[in-house]
TrEMBL record:
<dbReference type="Pfam" id="PF17249">
    <property type="entry name" value="DUF5318"/>
</dbReference>
<protein>
    <recommendedName>
        <fullName>DUF5318 domain-containing protein</fullName>
    </recommendedName>
</protein>
<dbReference type="InterPro" id="IPR035169">
    <property type="entry name" value="DUF5318"/>
</dbReference>
Length: 119
């Protein structure tokens, strides 16, 4: 399995945190993870081994998959192993890597990339 067409959203993340610290946006505006995202982080996510930039609790990395080739599996959270299995089926799709803090509801898309099976 390999990734291509990777897009990073780290700059946008840093900008949002700068705006929060400067008082230009409220915590409630940025910490808006809904129940589904928090549940996916809890059940499908992995510990990132880094603290939440808002509250200091442990962040979880959640992978969401999108693409017409996935059919009913599109728009769902998946483990790295499940993503590798889908790629091994010859499917090409996009993975969104989202950091989530279940404690304060901070969430941010870190990067998106197209996954495909290496041949």
């Amino acid at each position: 399995m390999a990734y291509r067409n990777e897009v990073s959203y780290e700059w946008e993340r840093a900008q949002h945190l700068r705006e929060l610290r400067a008082g230009k946006v409220t915590r409630e505006e940025l910490c808006d993870a809904d129940f589904l995202l928090r549940a996916a982080a809890e059940h499908h996510g992995v510990d990132m081994q880094k603290p939440c930039p808002v509250c200091g609790e442990e962040l979880r990395l959640t992978r969401w998959v999108y693409g017409d080739s996935l059919k009913r599996r599109a728009g769902s959270a998946r483990s790295a192993a499940e993503i590798a299995e889908m790629a091994a089926e010859g499917l090409e799709f996009t993975v969104h890597f989202v950091e989530v803090c279940p404690a304060c509801r901070w969430n941010h898309l870190l990067r998106a990339a197209t996954v495909y099976a290496r041949r």
